Sequence to fold (147 residues):
Amino acid sequence: MILVSACLLGIDCKYNGSSNDNAKVKEYLKNKAFVIACPEQLGGLTTPRNPSEIVKCDKDGIINENYKIISNKNVDVTENFIKGANETLKIAKIYNCKEAILKDGSPSCGSNFIYDGSFTGNKVIGEGVTTKLLRDNNIKVISEKDL
Fold:
């Protein structure tokens, strides 16, 4: 079973109320068993919502004990993202997911890069909160770009 970011399948759950509909992901999933999730919604955030970025990662983009996830309105939404990651992990365990395809760049789902916390569009190598938790639980996480 494969866990998939809902936005990649055309579900309008992206921060701005749209999706990241991806034909390549849909083609890859044909005839495969999968389940969808949106960690931000599972964490209690609304759609649409203010964009958020991880701040206080170390120099290699690794989430450390001092990290925060802050919206562009300077609201700390760290707990929402942690809750969403935990709920997503529950879904992955219920469905015995061994693999996940998550939206790169997201503070939840980024698997290769995240934004640097400056809200200027700068990307850094790193992973989102959900990706880190899934990987820590031996679930292989790739992005839509890795297909």
Remarks:
- The CA atoms of residues 21 and 67 lie 30 Å apart.
- The chain is about 25% helix and 20% strand.
- The chain has a mean pLDDT of 94.
